[in-house]
């Protein structure tokens, strides 16, 4: 632990090794000490030396409190460590013997923060909201079996180009009823208009969006559509298929895109018959893309914001085989979102896109 490292630095030799010939001072066991923290007293072992010259910096002589332990626990939890890992880390590094109950109490306090965050007031209008899903293994409360559950995240872009995670929802079922409840929640929190909603072909979602926000343009996520297409390709064909798909979504007009899709189907139908029909099934949610200026298209297509958010979340949850409850998953994902939002939140090259939004959507954007 760090106290041991401090004593090693003070004495000039490692524990268990011979002391230098000119060093008369030696280790002299430890004394028990109890420090007061935010959640009660914590036992700690303070190392000693024979001549009493060792003055630790981590826990100073006479110190009776250790502040910030809650932040340390929450930070470790946010990094994906389990309760057992956190206990071991605090004992190894700080010499603190922390009970599992204390760690659970500290991390459970995050749920209050989640509830406040999930119910906070939102902007009246969002030019873009991107809806995306993550698959997380969660133990079902009734069957006690581990199930793959979908956790949905909504990432909005404000009028000023600031990325804001609007909320997260663990889905019991994926259908119009669930999505309508999400849309209703956003409306109850103050959202009156969505200009463009980007989705991943989720069943019942477009209807739920237009029911709650009749004027919203529903756009299929082009990145996801391309990925789904490439998933059925042999590795050696992916580069060529991706290049031909790019001719579709980079076309200047919807008519030209349709012509490129016909050409794609003629070329690849014999080998990959499912790709073109998948694009045709989603076509009504693909074609709005072609009405937008390249400045807006780039933001919709690249979805860098949601991709970087997903990377942060996956990094936190990858060490967990599964979560015991939905609350445990929610806590960790929320903390990952909180870390994500500490970084740069402004969409790159937003100024050009904002001007296009102001022209295309006029009163809705400027109201």
TrEMBL record:
GO terms for molecular function: DNA binding; transposase activity. The keyword Zinc-finger does not apply. GO terms for biological process: DNA transposition. Keywords: DNA recombination, DNA-binding, Transposable element, Transposition. PANTHER family: MUTATOR FAMILY TRANSPOSASE (PTHR33217:SF8), TRANSPOSASE FOR INSERTION SEQUENCE ELEMENT IS1081 (PTHR33217). Belongs to the transposase mutator family. Required for the transposition of the insertion element. This is Mutator family transposase. It comes from Iodidimonas nitroreducens.
